[in-house]
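User: Can you recover a sequence for this backbone? Please restate the input before giving your answer.

Assistant: Of course. Working from this structure:
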C-alpha cells in the first residue's frame, strides 16, 4: 500500500514540475509578446527556424499574432493541468 502512495506522490511532484516549467515558458512568452508590441512598425523581426541556427526576416504583425496564439495555447494547457 505504501508503494501506491509513493507513486501518487511522485506523480504529484511530476505535475508540479510540469506546471512550474509551463509557468516559466508562459512568462517568457509574455515578455516576447510585450517586446513585439512595443516595436516600431518599420522594425525588422527575425524568426529562427526550428532545430536550426538559421534566421529569416519575418513580418512583425504576423509574428506577434503567432506569439499571442502560442501564449493563449500555453495558458489553456496550464488550466487543463
Amino acid at each position: 500500500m505504501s508503494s501506491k502512495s509513493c507513486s501518487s506522490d511522485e506523480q504529484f511532484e511530476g505535475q508540479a514540475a510540469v506546471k512550474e516549467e509551463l509557468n516559466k515558458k508562459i512568462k517568457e512568452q509574455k515578455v516576447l509578446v510585450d517586446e513585439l508590441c512595443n516595436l516600431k512598425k518599420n522594425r525588422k523581426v527575425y524568426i529562427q527556424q526550428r532545430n536550426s541556427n538559421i534566421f529569416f526576416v519575418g513580418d512583425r504583425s504576423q509574428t506577434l499574432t503567432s506569439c499571442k496564439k502560442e501564449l493563449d495555447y500555453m495558458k489553456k494547457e496550464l488550466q487543463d493541468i
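That completes the design. The beta strands are 45-48, 55-58.
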